[in-house]
Amino acid sequence: MKALIVYNGGLGKDYILYDVVKDLIGEAQNLKIDLIPKSNEDLLVMETARGTQVLGLDFSPAFVLFLDKDLFLARALESMGYPVFNSPKAIEICDDKKKTYQSLEGLPMPKTIFSPLLYHPKENKAYCQKIWENLGPSLIVKAAKGSFGQQVQRITSLEDLLQWTRENSTSSYLIQESIEESLGRDIRVVIVGNKILGAMERRNQKDFRSNIYLGGQGREISLSPQEENLALEAHRRLGLVFSGVDLLYSSQGPLLCEVNSNLSYLGFQEVTSLPVGKFILQEILRRIKNN
């Protein structure tokens, strides 16, 4: 069986996500799958009067494991009849934190304000004052699109909020209340199919962001029933086959932080010794067999 795994050409083979690609290729060999890696630069979407073509795809994959966020390519492959995992729809929602939060309305999450759509940079003191009154005295600002904890900042004064919003006024971002109990620590839950494989607590002594990529350390933990139910509900609502769901600690119980469709699982795998790639591939095989 031949299958395709897609990664981002801009990140290349020296980036951490390509280690995930290599791990999946190795696990695929054990399952007698020839998992062929191609970057989104190798596969060019061409629209013609006769329909969509993907240039550079020289075989018909049994499935596509899409470890990227290039939605035009993901949709093109899906339109050609190839099963794509995760689906383009799920990737689109997870890639934009605004869409994620709106899709998961009703689940426990930090109080969040979405940035307005502005075409020109500006400073708006009344806007910042309103945010501060509703979410202060400590805030988390983050780009709507971003990974590995990048483009996330903690703000502790109204003056800093004014400066940050002025500099980022034409960007798409979120502003959230800071959950003080969870600064420098959170929970990563890894889910495949509709089953939780396990969870780890991530702690960072030097940064309020707990990401392993930013120096956080992980340890395997057991989840409470509340934490399990919240992670599974987010995963199911977004139609994901595999995911990493991040939860925050709070005095009111667990809160949803974000949901990752492009799962960088090697830190989790090292902590838990669970072969995540194997479970992902087995779940995909089960699904294509049943469809």
Which helices and strands, and how do they pair?
Elements: E1 2-7, H1 16-30, E2 34-39, E3 44-48, E4 51-55, E5 64-66, H2 71-79, E6 84-85, H3 88-95, H4 97-103, E7 112-114, H5 125-135, E8 139-143, E9 152-155, H6 158-167, E10 173-177, E11 185-192, E12 195-203, E13 217-221, H7 225-237, E14 242-248, E15 255-260, H8 266-272, H9 276-290
Parallel strand pairs: 1-2, 1-5, 5-6
Antiparallel strand pairs: 3-4, 7-10, 8-9, 8-10, 11-12, 11-14, 12-13, 14-15
Helix pairs in contact: 3-4, 5-6
Properties at a glance:
single chain, 291 residues, alpha+beta, Rossmann fold, D-amino Acid Aminotransferase, Chain A, domain 1, Dna Ligase, domain 1, 3 domains, five-stranded antiparallel β-sheet, four-stranded parallel β-sheet, globular
Commentary on this structure:
- This protein is α+β, with helices and mostly antiparallel strands.
- The chain folds into three domains: 2-85, Rossmann fold, CATH 3.40.50; 93-106 and 181-278, ATP-grasp fold, B domain (D-amino Acid Aminotransferase, Chain A, domain 1, 2-Layer Sandwich), CATH 3.30.470; 112-178, Dna Ligase, domain 1, CATH 3.30.1490.20.
- 33% of the residues lie in helices and 27% in strands.
- It contains nine helices and 15 strands.
- It has a five-stranded antiparallel sheet, sandwiched between helices. It has a four-stranded parallel sheet with strand order 2-1-5-6. A four-stranded antiparallel sheet has the order 7-10-8-9.
- α3 (88-95) packs across α4.
- The longest helix has 15 residues, at 16-30.
